[in-house]
Amino acid sequence: MFAHVVIDSYLHTAYAGINPTQQRISVTALPTSPIYGDNVEYTAAPDPAGGQFAVTHWQFRPDSATQPATTPCDSTNPCNDVIRSSGTMWAFGTLSGRPDSGSVRVAMGDPELIVDCPDTVTRGATVNCPIRVSRPVAFTLIRRQAGGSGWMVARQLNMARAANDTVPWSGTAVTTTDVSVQARLSYGAVITKRSRFVVNDRVWPVWRLNSRPDSVKRVRLGMRLYAQDTIVFATYLLRGFAPTTIRIERVTQGPDSGLAYVPTPPALSGSDIYYHPGLYPGAKWYGDQNGKGSGTCRKNHLDQLFQFLNRHEGQSQQDSSHYGTSNRVLTQQRPQDEIERMYTQARSNSALARQVQATFFDWRYGRHMDEQEAFDGRDPVPNFCDWDTNPRDQ
Known about the structure:
By secondary structure, this protein is of the alpha+beta class. It folds into three domains: about 25-105, Immunoglobulin-like (Sandwich), CATH 2.60.40; about 115-200, Sandwich (Immunoglobulin-like); about 215-380, no CATH class. The chain is built from five helices and 23 strands. It has helices spanning about 285-290, 300-315, 320-335, 335-340, 350-380, and strands at about 1-5, 10-15, 25-30, 40-45, 55-60, 80, 85-95, 100-105, 115, 120, 125-130, 130-135, 140-150, 150-160, 170, 175-185, 190-200, 215, 235-240, 250, 260, 270-275, 345. β7 and β8 form a beta hairpin. α3 (about 320-335) crosses α5.
């Protein structure tokens, strides 16, 4: 383009070159980030707009060289196609009477692997974690893993499933568990999903002694009558569990497969009161309580002592006794709650049964014993008289 201008009687000429923009076919795709199985709409248009334009055919070329190109549409514009791999969609046509083509590359995302565990479940109930793929594509489960505090189980699989299949994964819930599942899709992609379910404790009933303690005429550790300081006439014992009531159940299916737990509360086997044999007629100590020698006690004082011991130890099942203290502490401290949560991955069920007994004994000789000793401090043996503790006098 030339321009001639007269300025101050002089002719000035100027030139401006024009480089016209050539129209091309432009192709867009919606959605821009499709997932396997999505319907993608491809639209072809001249860029810049204007002129005569027509599409003659479409061709999708997958990124993988092993996959053939496809012709999803003829002259239809827009062209709709279900995406099953990443690749490039080409539009071929005429633009202002000349042939042209345009393309758009589409990166396909993988569908999601869904492991549909519940958020929470109660211990001993069934936990369901069905596995599926979010889009209709065949898949093969290749790995399942579950684990928690101090345990983990991983299994390699080769479990082929058709499109839209759901793989069940259920079993008894034992403890809060993290799961991880891996699957290979039919077109080769490997997808992984993690999930977690929290196991809530069961509320077991309070343990309580209901039967009268058994009386045992036998010396137990710490019992003594001929003593210069503290005489121990009797002692109370809270027993452990009857072995047959400690049930152990091992889970064989589901995420917690392989774990053993305690399905039902063990039953307390009762309690005992041990009376020193010297308290009974015919025993030497009994005979020494005759008001002679180094003591002032007589047989009527022994009767008073037995009345006190029966009440104090719990033979009469009163609240103000060692028996009653056990029931109070069992209610307040709920030692069963720790046992309710116990589990093991060990192969032997008997190992968990021994652990149950050991846990109860730790409590019995720990916090429970502290309360029993405190009761002794509040309810000491009265000074009925001076007991004869010298075995050499009459």
